[in-house]
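Aggregate trends can hide what the representation actually does to any particular protein. For completeness, the protein is quoted in full, as a sequence line and a line of structure tokens.
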Amino acid sequence: MSQARKEEEVRRGVFIRRALVVGGIQFGALGFLGWRLRKLQVEEGERYATLAEENRISARLVAPPRGRVLDREGRVVAGGQLNWRALIVAEEARDVPAVLETFGRIVPLSEAERGRIEREVRRRRRFIPVTVREFLTWEEMARIELNAPDLPGISVDVGTIREYPEREHMAHVVGYVAPPAEADMGEDPLLELPGIRVGRAGVERFHDRVLRGQAGSIRLEVNAVGRVIRELDRREGQPGQDIGISVDAELQRTVRARCQEGTSAVVLDCRNGEVLAMATQPSFDPNIFNAGVSTAQWRDWTSRRQTPLINKTTNGLYAPGSTFKMVVALAALEARACTPTDRVTCPGYYDLGDTRFHCHARYGHGSLDMRGGIKASCDVYFYEMAKRTGIDRIAAMANRLGLGVDLEIELPGTRRGLVPTRAWRQAQGKPWNLGDTVVHGIGQGFYQLTPLSLAVMTARLASGRALQPHLTRTIGGRPARGADPENWPSLGIPERDLRLVREAMWAVVNEDGGTARIGRLPPGLGQMAGKTGTTQVRRVSREARERGFRVESLPREWRPHALFVGFAPHEAPRYAVCVVVEHGTSGSGAAAPIARDIMADTITRFRREGAPGGRVAQAQGGPRP
């Protein structure tokens, strides 16, 4: 074979080998492409079709309207107001900091706002909208829409903000709403929506889930830069249910107008425990929480001695003073420690061992029976009754009348207060002695009770039933429990004992020698029965008393608290009231006149409106034997 032929065969062999290699590579590449095309189109076709659809379709959750809170006449005391806002969806924006930088040149954003937005974007899922700016003006909305191509992921939306028409008047009852905290996020996906608010106090917090409703959804067609082309589909959420409360907004305004600084007042329906008014001075405007509370405003609220953020009707704790004497009287009668006609002589003091306890009447009241002891508010009489009865029996009666127990009212954080017992004191590692019992017989000592609990005590005395205070009348238009007197069981206290106490309370207000004659109602409104109370916040020594000490000489913050409890009309009890005036000096001088005016306003209000059960007894005479 020639040399040329050999070289030709070598070249042909190299060519064939190379052709086979290239052909193999081509065949493998085509096979891989075929396999990949099959995988993409057949096996994963549905997934990529969904992704393609998502590029065109933007699905968003829609927050439902929050339910309203209505007063007993159907007036809106917590509702909604339109709020235009800018939202950002991180998934559509891609580069959130860059978009915010552009947005800030159109609508200024502070560093604090930008930091808040970036925190929320990191915290939430990327398809959940985050609020960039609320309360947009028409001019700001126009600038945002004009620059929409440069703001991917940004959209303008209309939501609602909570509006409280009654402002300070209903703040402590209705409460307020605020953005959910991080700890709340896991409990409900609805809480991740922009602009959503949760109840932080009052009825708003207690009924938050009912008021919140359930989220809806909306499907939008968008272009490549995320601008909305059209709405494709909408599924409305379930709006929150309306809550009807028992408080009358008009009466509430009137009651607050009667209250001076540091005063709290409660008006209950004696028959079923409905709260008709619950006022604390000072108060606050819950609308301020919509735009966020400034540092200066918060500092002002928390630094004021009168603490406007605290509902003192449910959280203020006070010794009840002489308003507690009816409890001691009933406990003594139940324990058979005395009879209504047993008499005690009051020389102006009560000696127990080598300790002398004084009566508020320096020269004494003379000989008194139980009715006279309550009417004159004689301390000596109740020192003796407490000694005969014992602290544990007194505490048991107090609990039965609603003192020192959970009242289960629809206001979160309500305090139970304290009614001491021998076991309670011993649990502290200290003994209970007879002197402690004597002091507690006049409502002093360790007692810590709320104005609401004292109003409940008064309503139970007037009705003879173990009613509970409640605010909720309706939920979503359906009646709530507690509207009928029959819902509440009897206290189990003999009617003759209750009648004796009621008549003594009538004498306090309507007979000569009563401690609250100033509390008499105007003619035509029936007659009120009541009891005054004055509780020391600073002990007065025996030497000071003997020198003719006058409480008016003390600085205001050291003066006694003033209390009054009462119910009316006496012969057909319908309304119970409790008024506490911090450092008011005297129950008869400070609290009784306010309670009188509140009771007159209440009777007049419901008589004018013809409210169910608003009938006022017309009899003007005293109690019949």
Summary: Confidence is low (pLDDT under 50) at residues 612-625. The longest helix spans residues 3-43. The domain at 58-245 is CATH 3.90.1310.10 (Penicillin-binding protein 2a (Domain 2)).
